TrEMBL record:
Pfam families, alphabetized: SBP_bac_1 (PF01547)
InterPro entries in the cross-refs: Bact_solute-bd_prot1, SBP, TAT_signal
PANTHER family per record: ARABINOSE-BINDING PROTEIN-RELATED, DIACETYLCHITOBIOSE BINDING PROTEIN DASA
Taxonomic classification: Bacteria, Bacillati, Actinomycetota, Actinomycetes, Kitasatosporales
Species whose genome carries this gene: Streptomyces zhaozhouensis
Protein name as annotated: Carbohydrate ABC transporter substrate-binding protein, CUT1 family
């Protein structure tokens, strides 16, 4: 139907979701906006601004359903992550009414948008609509959809970490590691770096590694912030920093501190590492013979348990909100209700797009498109999951940069505690300056 598309072409779910997973929004607080006003023309389209993602394409293919329901044309603009950020900054600063439905990252930009008053409060709609079944959404993504008790978005795509491993290499050890201690031991045992084979590969770039390292932090019993204060120098956080740094320093590839997803993923895909921890959404890269040499050897396992148990993140990587300045709020809500309703989530998850509803995850038919071992891994991680993979602040990019400093030190083989204490002091000062904590 009526779809306007910009940005990169459609690619596999793994590659698109990986882009969504690692893209970062600049955290600059922008100016306040004026109150909306006016009415929409009867023939005005409902305008949806979305990331160029497999979810967006799947929804675009079904637009006729919602157009028949709201008796209005729907136009979707699909942008790259950078284009999306730029578009929102320009349009929302200008109180623009030509965006109705917004695809947003609840963990990256929602807090900033809430601070600036750019998202409609959806609380009464989601909680007052029995057919929508708000309680059916997984707890962790549902909690991340709210700011100060107000629901500002609804999750449509979720993501967790998975332990990717080589089946052929772990057979003699009784299968994949179930604990972080076992992961380190096996990584050291299997690494042969003189022959360019690595025990473990993962993100090591200062800013980009933070989201995947979060699961290690939680599983060591730590967190980014505790009671509004920096927790980067707690014994638990330092232990998590040292563990991850040592794992890459002793068993990982050279140059790991320069590696984001785009550099780390191909190392495992080309058969150069025994273990890899990253987003479950990128699994198709390892099953594609055009990308991977291990498609018949790759296995999938839940995130290993640390001293505090297995505590991976389970996040809403992409959500839908309504522009505060939209003149079509009711129609926009009908779009959200349709696009994130139980039937749609089940249908899209059956096509390999992981949603956020408990009912979909408990239905074996919706998991049939995933490899059975991966489906079970995703289900377990969703049950255990923590709803965030980065600090919940206004200036997320800056926070990640501070948090990543001790990670880099550990990967380089340097002493971590001193760097962690310095980062803790810097982060504590940052939290005082960050409007989220000053106002809280």
């Amino acid at each position: 139907m009526s779809t306007s598309s910009q940005g990169v072409s459609r690619r596999s779910f793994g590659k698109l979701a990986a882009t969504a997973a690692v893209a970062a929004v600049g955290g600059t607080t922008l100016g306040a906006c004026s109150t909306r006003g006016g009415t929409a023309s009867p023939d005005a389209p409902l305008r949806v601004t979305a990331i160029n993602h497999v979810w967006s394409h799947a929804i675009a293919d079904r637009l006729e359903e919602i157009e028949d329901r709201i008796k209005r044309r729907v136009s979707i603009s699909m942008l790259t992550a950078d284009q999306l950020t730029s578009s929102y900054n320009v349009k929302l600063n200008a109180s623009a009414t030509d965006v109705d439905v917004m695809m947003v990252r609840a963990l990256q930009e929602q807090l900033l948008f809430a601070h600036n008053g750019w998202l409609v409060d959806l609380t009464d709609r989601v909680e007052g609509d029995a057919g929508y079944r708000w309680s059916d959404f997984q707890q962790a993504p549902r909690e991340r959809s709210a700011v100060d008790g107000s629901v500002l978005s609804v999750p449509v795509v979720t993501e967790r970490p998975a332990l990717y491993y080589r089946r052929d290499l772990v057979e003699d050890f009784g299968g994949p590691p179930g604990t972080l201690d076992e992961l380190r031991e096996l990584s050291l045992e299997l690494a042969d770096r003189r022959d360019n084979f690595f025990g473990f590969v993962g993100r090591g770039q200062r800013n980009g590694a933070v989201s995947q390292w979060s699961s290690f932090l939680y599983s060591f019993g730590g967190d980014f912030v505790v009671d509004g204060r920096s927790a980067l120098a707690t014994p638990e956080a330092i232990a998590a920093y040292e563990y991850y740094g040592r794992l890459l320093h002793e068993t990982g590839p050279p140059g790991a501190t320069n590696m984001s997803l785009e550099q780390a993923m191909p190392i495992f895909a080309q058969g150069k590492a025994a273990f890899y921890v990253d987003a479950d959404a990128i699994y198709t890269n390892f099953l594609d013979p055009g990308v991977s040499t291990v498609q018949d050897l790759v296995g999938f396992a839940p995130f290993p348990a640390g001293p505090a148990g297995a505590r991976p993140h389970n996040i809403p990587s992409w959500s839908l909100g309504i522009n505060e300045f939209s003149l079509l709020r009711d129609d926009a809500w009908e779009f959200l209700r349709w696009a994130s309703g139980p039937e749609m989530v089940a249908a899209l998850q059956a096509e390999g797009i992981p949603g956020a509803r408990e009912s979909a995850w408990s239905d074996s038919e919706t998991l049939g498109s995933f490899p059975a071992e991966l489906a079970e891994t995703m289900r377990i991680s969703a049950e255990r999951g923590v709803g965030t993979d980065r600090p919940q602040v206004l200036q997320v990019a800056r926070a990640r940069d501070i948090v990543g400093r001790p990670l880099v030190a550990g990967i380089l083989g340097e002493s971590v505690p001193g760097v962690a204490r310095d980062a803790d002091a810097e982060f504590a000062e940052f939290l005082v300056r960050d409007n989220r904590y000053r106002e809280g």
